[in-house]
Amino acid sequence: MFFMLTTLFKDIDQRFPEASTHLKQLWAKGTKFLGCPLGILGGAMTWVSEPSLVSAISNAGGFGVLASGAMSPDILKQIIRQTQKKTSHPFGVNLILLHPQVGDLIDVCIQCQITHVVLAAGIPNKDQLKRLIQAGIQVIAFAPTLAIAKRLERIGVGALVIEGTEAGGHVGPVSSSVLAQEILPHPFTIPIFIAGGIGHGSMILKYLEMGASGCQLGTRFVCAQESVAHPLFKQAFIRASARDATLSAQVDARFPVIPVRALENDGCEAFRRKQQEVVRRFEQGQLSQKEAQLEIEHFWAGGLRRAVLEGDTKMGSLMAGQSVGFVRQEEPVEKIIWTLLKEACIAYTSNTSLSYDKAVVEPPLSA
Ligand SMILES: Cc1cc2nc3c(=O)[nH]c(=O)nc-3n(C[C@H](O)[C@H](O)[C@H](O)COP(=O)(O)O)c2cc1C
After folding, report:
1. Disulfide check for 199: which of 61, 246, 301, 323 has CB 3.0–4.6 Å away?
2. DSSP 3-state assignment of 255?
3. From the CB of 44, is ligand 1 less than 6 Å away?
4. H or E element that contains 247
5. Is 144 close to ligand 1, i.e. is its CB under 6 Å away?
6. Strands 63-67 and 40-42
7. H-helix segments, the chain
8. Which atom of ligand 1 is nearest to the CA of 69?
């Protein structure tokens, strides 16, 4: 493992000494907080971010984050143990605050001596935060607005992720670039990581230069060789372009749909038809408002698992960000990270983000 890290970094340091020093300085606050050499997080992706991908990201110098999705505490414990066997480098665990057993999941993280927890889908309550902080766990939370970012820092969260609407999966309404302009100029003392729509190293450099301490990428890692995603799921990513990653449609304002960004497929059309049918039955008095809402919400149940693990790319949920256009082939995590670093360094060296194609250099892969 150590060999892999040093080979990768030596190559970048030798080719781009000034740019690599610049990057290290820019993300120093983030890397110190994460305990890894690079300010690049592999965002948790339910069913995708399991021990193989997460350990590969951490072993390559980034910061992998395990997705816990709707897992039971026992399963979470198993996958944490499996990840710990595959890497001695730090990684995080993503917990969904809406999970009915979130308290037990926190216990598992404490028992397994997890160093970082990434809390999604809400704001942690006092008790949750206190238990994590007292156990010495670094807490990272999502900040969808400046006001929430300030509040999260005030209540003791250790770092923030600002995720824009370009991202894959459940998203907010505002773009990463606008959130970055709104939030980064404020004098936060904690590290801030930007997520959503990042496919190229030049963008990482730009966000760092705006004051971010690192970036979180999800979509870009789905087609890593180490990712267990089904070959058909990966193929859908490789074929797709940015415009294919669309937001879930809502057909009636009375029945809100949580915005999810995914690749358009037959399932998306069936979802629109399902909503129309449910609204019709509601208007005819066959369903109560609550029953109708639940039927709509249940449409995608199990859809991401079917797509990621079984390769059901027609009807499953193909959650993907707009950065899917940068996913062109299956390649090792190490190469993805090396490419991002190289792009960031070239952008710094040439002061333009468009010159990356000129660099015909190959990574020193150890795998
Ligand atoms: C397939 C998929 C599943 C995701 N699942 C989760 C999740 O379980 N928890 C979470 O906090 N974020 C989840 N995300 C968001 C990622 O962690 C990450 O923030 C996002 O992918 C970054 O934007 P990008 O896709 O443009 O790189 C998911 C994203 C994708 C593409």
Report:
1. 323
2. coil
3. yes
4. strand 245-247
5. no
6. parallel
7. 2-15, 17-26, 28-34, 51-59, 73-86, 102-111, 126-134, 146-154, 176-183, 201-209, 231-239, 266-283, 289-298, 303-310, 333-350
8. 8
Give the pairing type, strands 138-142 and 116-120: parallel
Ligand 1: does its nearest atom lie under 6 Å from the Cβ of 128?
no
Structure tokens at 7: 């080979």
Q: pLDDT-based confidence at 356, cuts 50/70/90?
A: very low
Phi-psi category of residue 91: left, alpha or beta, with phi > 0 → left and psi -120 to 50 → alpha: beta
| pLDDT given for residue 271 in this prediction | 95
Distance from Cα 328 to the centre of ligand 1, integer Å: 19
Ligand 1: does its nearest atom lie under 6 Å from the Cβ of 219? yes
pTM: 0.93
Decide whether any atom of ligand 1 lies within 6 Å of the 195 Cβ.
Answer: yes
Residue 226 predicted with pLDDT over 50? yes
Q: Is 45 in the pocket of ligand 1 (CB under 6 A)?
A: yes
113-123 average pLDDT score:
96
Distance 287 CA to ligand 1 centre (A): 34
Tokens of 345: 């360094």
Closest residue CA from atom 6 of ligand 1: 45
Identify the helix (H) or strand (E) that includes residue 139: strand 138-142
Confidence of residue 85 (pLDDT cuts 50, 70, 90): very high
Question: Which atom of ligand 1 approaches the CA of 142 most closely?
Answer: 11
Instruction: Tokens 């998203």: give the residue.
Output: 171
DSSP three-state, residue 19: helix
| Neighbouring C-beta atoms of residue 136, cutoff 10 Å | 10
Indicate the top mutation candidate among 45, 93, 246, 327 to test ligand 1's pocket, ranked by most ligand atoms within 8 A of CB: 45
Find the 361 Cα to ligand 1 centroid distance in Å. Answer: 30
Q: Is the pLDDT of residue 365 over 60?
A: no
Q: In the Cβ-directed half-sphere of 84, how many Cα atoms lie within 13 Å?
A: 13
